[in-house]
Amino acid sequence: MKHCPDMHIRPALSSIALFTAILLLLGACSGQGQREGLQPAAEQAALKLLPAPDMLRSASVQDIVQSGLDRIARHPQAGQKNSSLVLSAEGDDAFEWGAWAFGPLEDQPLELQIVVSQSGPDTSTAIVFLANFQRGSWDAALTQAFSTLDTLVVPIDPALHLSPENNVLVAVAVPAGEGIVGVSELRLRTDGDPVLEAKLSADVLQGEAPLLVQLDASDSTGNIVKFEWDTNGSGNFVTDTGTVPTLGSTYSSPGLFNAVVRVTDDTGSTSTDSIQIAVTQDGNLPPTASLVPDVFEGDGEAGFTVNLVAEASEDPEGPLSLFEWDLDGDTGTGTGGFEVSSSTPDNQQAQISSPGEKRLRLRVTDSGGLQNVVSVIITGRGWVQVPLETFNDGDRAAGLALTRIGKGPVVSYVDSNTNLLQFARSSREHGASPDDWALTDITVANDTKVTDVLEVDGRPAICFSGLDDSLGFTRSNSATGAAQADWEIVTADSVDALGMSMAIVDGRPGISYVERTNLGTVGLKFAFSSTTTGIEAADWDSITVKAADGQLQGFGRSTALLLVQGLPAIAWNSSIGSLSGRFVNFARSSTAAGSVEGDWEQTLALAECEDRGLSLALIDGRPAISFCAVNPAANTPSFLRSSSADGALLADWLAVKVGTSAEGGFNSRLAVIDGVPQMSFSRDFGADSQLALKLAESSSADGGLETDWLSQDQVTEPSQMAGGLTEHDMAVIDGYQALVFFDSTASQLTYAIRF
């Protein structure tokens, strides 16, 4: 279970009052914000009739015209690694919203299905708007309270909601105070689409072990392209029968098993159905174990006690004879890991003494000797530090980069002694134990200060400073990258490259970096692949992103590449022309590929900064840059947030100080975790070049005030980053904050995750 932030949920507004407030606000807005060049002209004219709901702060009408893939749409602000667009309105903001476009459609639209999730303890309310092209307004089509995970269904009237060019425009809004809502998928059903519904049956539902059961999903409906099976209710669909709707499964031991089928149609939509299989032994049905804790994760820092209740455990044929408890989460010791036993369902207590997830278990046995086991995961808050590799004195790991690929974290780095580019991968989702990690040597890198690691076409890939002063790119041809032979290495640009950052741009890998010349000047560059893999040198080309008034000058160490409104954008630090000092700069392409130099527009000299790491993230749907400011106080951790969705104007950007001027910092990183911005940086203690890694968390969704950043967490002791080693990276791993840094005291590359 993941930690959810404290929520303050108010009762949902009455439908009449809510509709009245929404429609009054919508009616007060003018028809502005239309996307220039929207074609054809008939639809552009129709769009001009739609008021832009300016009180909804996360998008504008111009963001709507980002068409979905056929009949499934994802919002352009939904990131590559997060399928959901998170909506959370707070304070004075009446609503937060996202908007989508479907079409042009060949068939008549019938209904909209919206998959939503909710992070509050009770329910949240979502409002769905449809663009009414007959009246030229937005219709509040549905207001509904929902629980943790739900699918909202909205009927569509083609006469009202189908545009002159056969498009359907949708907006989903969340009122202030209604919790955090994730919108993961929207599905538009037309009269040409059969309804997707999984239906599962079996030839037998009960029998003696071993029991052969023929599972049959032939009655499922829809354009089904895949049948997947979970025969025991584990949550893992391990068998894929393609388009074959049947499966034979043998149950060798007694128990109650939930058999589940998952069907997928040609749009990628899924549906599931399940049945229960009762497998007996000598006519005896197994018991049911029930384990209920009084707290779940997020209830406090590690060091608390959880009470466990088993009274709901039962057996259909009589009383249970034995209750066994695993209270330390260690499944490998004791009697199968169950260290406490009792003949009655006495409540037990477990100590959550250390940070991390602990799986507590109960096993019950009936009078016939049949057993059933149930477990619950309890999480204690706090940091867990995991050593990944130990180095000789004087050597260290450099060029650190961290992200999640597949189900777990990965790290790229370079051994300063051997210059070997290396890849570390966790086999488990959190990487909270040294046993989870495996290391792979890839190739020799050339004095690498920065690497970046990313999933490219389903495989891990790394950019780095290669041999002979070149920009190197390597991608594994396996999902794990476990063997050196898996990695294919190419030269993406034959220049001395620094400060690399990588992202998927227009479906293909792209890299931002600075080119250092012999004269010490730098030029911002962008390399891009013509293929989705980038595994051939011929795939790569590059452009120079120049300033409008001439060449950028000075030694810039950092770039950060990100998609902003679906278009590539770069933040970097460098001197600008004749200006003294080093500045944070921002550039954004007007095209999805960014492959033409003239496509890039720059916003320069946003703030004066020190020359080490910065990062770029979308905060509340708008670009934001973390850095350490030189003025007005030396190396103050800060970030720049844009008031516009594209950050195109210097006046759009506002600097916010994070921490006090006494806490100078280096090498900042910025990410959104649990719906709020968080920033990591190396704090300078000013004594013997000692630093500590800190994490600051905003109390608001945009972090727009200095007072929002009062919550700060010290991750390391000052001695762990002695000698001025400021380098680190931060990522979101399965909803938790994670960092990688070099521990100079232990001479270890260290991964840390905060549960």
Estimate the mean pLDDT confidence: 79
Share of residues in helices: under 10%
> What's the total number of strands?
53
Task: Report on the biggest sheet.
Answer: 5 strands, antiparallel
Strand percent estimate: over 45%
Q: What is the helix tally?
A: 4
Shape: globular
Q: Which stretches are low in confidence, meaning pLDDT under 50 for 5 or more residues running? A: 1-84
Multimerization state: single chain
Radius of gyration: 28 Å
Q: How far apart, in Å, are the first and last alpha carbons?
A: 10 Å
Structural class designation:
mainly beta
If you had to describe this structure to a student in words, what would you say it looks like?
With 755 residues, the protein is mainly beta. Strands 1, 2, 4, 7 and 9 form a 5-stranded antiparallel sheet that branches. A hairpin with a 4-residue loop joins β5 (124-132) and β6 (137-146). The longest helix is centred in the N-terminal third of the chain and has 13 residues, at 15-27. The chain is globular, with a radius of gyration of 28 Å.
